[in-house]
Amino acid sequence: MSEQRLTVLKSGMSGTVVSIDGGALLIKRLDALGIRPGVHITKRSSQLLRGPVTIAVGNSQVAIGHGMAKRILLNTGHR
After folding, report:
1. pLDDT digit string (tens) for 7-37?
2. pLDDT per residue over 38-76, tens digit each?
3. Which residues, in sequence order, are CB contacts of 12 under 8 Å at separation 6+?
4. To 5 degrees, how large is the angle CA 35–CA 52–CA 23?
5. Total domain count for the chain?
6. Whole-angstrom distance, CA of residue 11 vs CA of residue 56
7. How far is 21 from 11, CA to CA, in rounded Å?
8. Which residues constitute the domain of residue 18?
9. Which CATH number is 37's domain given?
10. Which end of the chain is more exposed for a tag (fewer CB within 10 A), N or C?
């Protein structure tokens, strides 16, 4: 089992959210987007120089800031 930050994944890689390192406000904001522990997400794209990260959550595609993305820890299943 391998746990990695969302920001280090390459486009097309996916994993299950293990935890979110943030306060109640960040957790609430991500929860409203469908991003919570136990949910499977796929990284679609990211921009250079700490730009937004686009991810697929269920049937939706959302963009979140780099600061939010680096606080999401995923179990990728890769070693």
Report:
1. 999 999 999 999 999 999 999 999 999 999 9
2. 999 999 988 777 789 999 999 999 999 999 999 999 999
3. 42, 43, 44
4. 45
5. 1
6. 11
7. 22
8. 3-75
9. 2.30.30.90
10. C
